[in-house]
Every structure is written in structure tokens, then in C-alpha cells.
Amino acid sequence: MTTLTDTPHHNHRWPILWVVLAVLCLHALLLSESPAWFSPHAEKNNPTLSFVTRQIETAKTAPPKQAEKPAEAATSTKHTVPHSTPAPPTAATHPAPIHFDATHPNLTAPVALPERAASAVDLPPFQRANSEGLTEPTAANAPASALLNYTVQGLAKGFHYPASAQLLWKNTQDHYEARLEVGAFLLGSRTQTSSGQLGREGLMPTRFGDKTRSELAVHFQREKGVISFSANTPEVPLLKGAQDRLSVVLQLSALFAGDPTRYPLGTMLSFQTVSQREAEVWQFKVDNEETLNLPYGDLPSIKLLRTPRRDFDQRIELWLAPSLGYLPVRLRITNANGDFVDQLLRSVEKIAP
Q1: Which of 91, 118, 149, 178 could disulfide-link 311, Cβ–Cβ 3.0 to 4.6 Å?
Q2: Is the pTM value of this prediction over 0.70?
């Protein structure tokens, strides 16, 4: 009778056979499951890979070197890849000149703006060759120093929230400082600051800052005639009457206080306006006269309106109160998606400059 203990040499042979068989199967599996980008059919599914495939095939099928002239053969192989000549750069285009046809000097035609792609996030700054079409102030009277407190109502992604805002405005006759801070519980705060000179033409900013977690700054370099950005945006020309997103509100106050009869209903006021990353032309239309029911009380006011002109533009509604030196008593900003922030004056007090 034969038992397993009688043939120990057979037990040692089987494991070796199994290992050899496993190695052969694994090798066959790797050869059959090669990645798709090495397949000759990869070009049909991914045309962007066709150039790489042709380069590999060219290397494999390159003609053999001639024994008598090996150097020339190598040289000819290097020049088999064609080189395309880049097209010469096209000249920069500028908006066509704007012609005015209005009886009132402030009823200017809309400023031509370039198309704005809906998918764009940070666009190059809007540049103009000159100040044609922009408002030229002839008289300005900036408001006296004041501290304004606002009740804020907001909507963000379908969520209504309360907030508060405070505008600190300092007028020292030849210099100004403005600080607007908006804060909401659990949403954090945002602070904008503007400082510069005051003159016959109103506010002339030298620095603008916008801060949430960190601050982005803009500098108005009047001696060089340019506006520079800390956000690595290219410099843009500084045009006459240029403002930032905060100073433009107070510049409107100064212009109305300087000569309110110059800006009847329908007047269009245009300014080069700077944000953290770009400069473009903002236009405000003197829209209406109405009495607002505010937490501060009922106030007769003048409404100015900036309507969206491109994708993602904000709708800005601003109310100035003549009885308060044309200070801003309400400011409502609405985004393209319907989100908004609405500042309503709650209290105001005069302060020392």
C-alpha cells in the first residue's frame, strides 16, 4: 500500500509547478491589458494624443543611417518635424469715439463697453484711451465729518440674514478718509477704506483697500498717471475724476452738494471706478425723487441707479438726503443671482474731523 509518506519527493514538485504556471498567467494578463493610450485606436477616442503616437512611430520607422554619411542622416532626422510660424500680434483695439447729442451737458451717451464672457471670473481691467464721456466736476462740496450707522438686510443663496454697517467719514478740508464696515453674525465682516485729497473737483483718491480675511489695495499714482493693484493686475491709466468703489458714493454726495441744479432727473454721471482687481466705467442715472421710510425716520431723498450692462454686473441703488448734506442714507447692491445687501440709515452724528 502506498501512502503520502512513502513519496515525499512528489509533494515538493507540485508547488514549483504551480509557481511557474502563475507567473506565465500573470505575464499573459499584463500583455493583454495594456493601457488605452498605448493602443493604436487611442487617437479615435482622444485626438489630443495623436501627436504623441506619431512621434513614437516615427522613432521606430526612421530610415537607417547611411554608413558613409552618418552625421547627415542624423541631421535630416532632426528636421522631419515641421515648425509653424506664429502669426504676428494684432494691434490693440480701442472703443470707438463717443459722440454726444443732448441738450443738457450731463445727459451723455452711454460709454461703449467690451463684451464680457459669462464664464470669466477675473477680467482684464477696462481701459479707455482718454476721458471722453466721463463726468467733469465743476463744483463740489464734500459733506462734513460724520458717523453713520445702518441696519442691513441681506440675502445670500436663499438665506435671509440681518447685519449692521458703519460708515466713518472724515473731512479735513484738503484731505479725506472713509471707512465702511459691514458685519453679520457667523458671516464675518468686510471693510473698505478710501483716502485721498479734497479739491474743487471733489474727492481724489490715493489709496483704496478692501478686506475680508486679507486686504487687497489699489494705489492711485497721480504723478505717474497710473492705477496699480496689489492683486497682480496690470496697471491701468488713471483718468480724470477716477474713483474707487467707496469714494464714488461720497463723490456723488459732494457733486450734488456743490450744485444740485446741475443734475436734474435723467442726468447720467460717469466715472472711472476701481475695485480690487479692475477699473471700469460706472454710470449712475439720476432716477427719481422719493421719501424713504427708514429706521432713522422719513427722509426726502434723491435716487441714483446703476443698471447692469454686462453679465455679472451689479445693480446699485443709492439714495442721497439733501437735509443731511446729501450723505448716503440707503445703499442697495444686488448681484446677478439675486443676492443683495440693503443698508438703511439708523442714526447719524457729526464728529470732529
Answers
A1: 118
A2: no
- Does pLDDT of 111 surpass 60? no
Q: Can you tell me the distance from the alpha carbon of 102 to that of 104, in angstroms, rounded to the nearest whole number?
A: 6
- Other Cβ atoms within 10 Å of 155 Cβ, number: 16
Q: What is the pLDDT of residues 9-63, one digit of tens each?
A: 445 555 666 555 655 544 443 333 333 222 233 333 333 333 233 333 434 444 4
Alpha-carbon gap, residue 206 to 215, rounded angstroms: 16
User: Cα–Cα distance between 252 and 101 in angstroms, integer?
Assistant: 24
CA proximity to 203, closest of 152, 245, 242: 242
Strands (E), 121-201: 146-156, 159-171, 175-184, 188-199
| Pairwise CA distance, residues 251 & 259, whole Å | 13
DSSP-assigned letter for residue 190: E
Chain segment 236-248, per-residue pLDDT in tens: 999 999 999 999 9
Mean model confidence pLDDT for the chain? 74
Q: How far apart are CA 198 and CA 221, in angstroms?
A: 16
Q: Residue 38 half-sphere exposure, CB side, CA atoms within 13 Å?
A: 5
